[in-house]
Amino acid sequence: MADAAFKPLVRKHSEIGIFLIAILLIVFFAATSEGRWNNSYNISTILQITATLGLMTLGVALVVGTGEIDISVGSTFGMSALIYLFLAVRVDPFIAATAAVCVGALIGAFNGYLVTKTGTPSLIITLGSLMIFRGLAIALTSGFAFSIPYKERGGFSYFILGGDNMFNFGTFAGVNTGFLWLIFALVVLTVVLKLMPYGNHLLAVGGSSESAHSRGIRVDRVKLKAFIICGALAGLGGVLEAGKLGSADGSMGRLMELQAIASCVLGGCLLAGGRISLIGALMGAFVLSSIQSYLVVMAVRPQWFMVLLGIIVVFAALGDKKLRHWAHKH
Amino acid sequence: MNYVTKLAATALLATTALSGAAHAQDETFRFVMVSHIGSNDANMGWLTESLAAFEEKYPDVTTEYVSTNNYSVQEHVRLLEQAIATKPDGIAVPIVDADAFEGPLRKAIEMGIPVVAFNIPDARPVGERIPYLTYVGGDEYLTGLHLGEYALEQVAAGNIPQPTGVVCASHDAAHQGLKARCAGMKAAMEGTGAAFEELFIGAEPATARNTLQSYLQANPETNYIFTVAGWSSPWAWGVANDMGLSPDVDNEGVTVLTVDEAPVSIEGIRAGHLLAANSQGFWLQGYAPMEWLYWNKTLGYEPQSDILTGPVIINAENAEKWADLVRGVFGDEEYDNQNTW
């Protein structure tokens, strides 16, 4: 009886699996960490990581929805962080943030233009971008970090751009302001996907670009927009991370692209395109951040850290797949 | 009645005292080392071995070693914040980037968690730096400087050629400590007339070898290679050897210098491939911060100055003693595994 009610729910909402996994993991982490994982300071840290990774993940989810992929987001994240830090001390943090997000969007446009105009697989194009912009980031910094001294990071501009926590009173550590930006981006993109034509076009292109084209959808334009939004969101993530750390070097954002893609897949996005869940992808980012945090607070040695993280992610993905298989069985 | 009251009071006092004593004995501490050295770096062994030795000496202390094999300042700060969230009794951390670490560390100190910097200090003046208890570690600039000065002593003794070009081969372009090593070497070579260049070779063997080979072809005057990690010294020697540049320690061709008391550095010196390396007292850098944290927690002790643990030169004369010491810490099997010559 309960099965009959639950199956359609799982079939309709691809993100149900990751929510169940998240609940199971939270219960397990809280029960076994003796308060090391489930305390407000740590949850605050996890939410801050989820905020920056989540913004990147939302952008990747859009690109994945069109049937393409963007693996350059880690480098875009790093470039934007450097541009923000370089300009924030010279002009103004808000102007710096705007410029950094624009650079992210430009990198996205560069990727999208090459993918749509040349027909080259997005994996190859964005692999090239990943290397180009990582290399540029290393070259720009020449071994030094771009930074803003801790004492100079006061004021509202720095605060709202990920610089500190809000709602922190007493022993409650609060939530980093970057999380506000994540919620804002989620709401805007959900409205765009659910209520505006672009949302339908994006999923139609991902489902079958030929079919979408035959119905008058400008496939290239839809993909280009997805890449631009993806770049801008990765750029915003980089700004918020730089705002939090006050410092960035050439390695900022390295390998985050893999976490973003893993978050999308865990969250119910189909890599072939045509099906995405923004909230699921965000939950994927939260689960990854939580697993990573659990392994750290339990002092797992670095040689086992990656192995365990990988194993847990594989099990989570398998569990999710099994759940969906069960839901589609009559 | 009076006797009964006195007896009861005595019993109560005794119980309180005994429970207090038992409590004092039961008090345990947990210190966390949030390191930038992952298991892909042989130096991690020094730190984890010294933590194990510390735990053996102080059974009331648990130590934890937290690090990553995918290092970045961003990742390190995350590890640090998550370590702080567990509310340990003390933290030891290298100040890789003072601007990035200051916020979390000030928070930790405000929470009452004592902090000791190890391996890399906050380079700013004392009044401006992060208010940690003390710094325990080497001096990266002196590492390069002393190795360079040692090489020039060997030149004067006629054991190796006069430097004409020096390349400082670094695997991490963003690591300030490595840059300081190169800067020290550069300072030592000033006045010799030798050209000096810092070269980013990366941490991947094939790429590093290609980069170094291209550099040596383009800069034939280069006859000193200083690798700022022990594990990259066999790559440098291999490239120079393949190019016929006579990289062994003698009065011709290329001379290779490196760092660390790692098996690969020591065995390279013993085999005559490397001129010298250095030790910055890695074992002490793991053990001493724990000792200071313990004394601070139990006795309120605060060191009055930084504690330098190096550098000291490792050369052909003392390499055997170093080999014995390192074998004693790592064990024969691990020592041999880490010797990649």
From TrEMBL, chain A:
InterPro entries: ABC_BtuC-like, ABC_transp_permease. Pfam families: BPD_transp_2. It is found in: Cell membrane. GO terms for cellular component: plasma membrane. The chain crosses the membrane at residues 16-33, 45-64, 71-89, 95-116, 123-146, 166-193, 252-271, 303-319. It is a multi-pass membrane protein. It comes from the Bacteria. Keywords: Cell membrane, Membrane, Transmembrane, Transmembrane helix. GO terms for molecular function: transmembrane transporter activity. This is Monosaccharide ABC transporter membrane protein, CUT2 family. It comes from Primorskyibacter flagellatus.
UniProtKB/TrEMBL annotation, chain B:
The keyword Glycoprotein does not apply. Keywords: Signal, Sugar transport, Transport. GO terms for cellular component: outer membrane-bounded periplasmic space. Residues 48-294 form the Periplasmic binding protein domain. Its main location: periplasm. Residues 1-24 form the signal peptide. This is Simple sugar transport system substrate-binding protein.
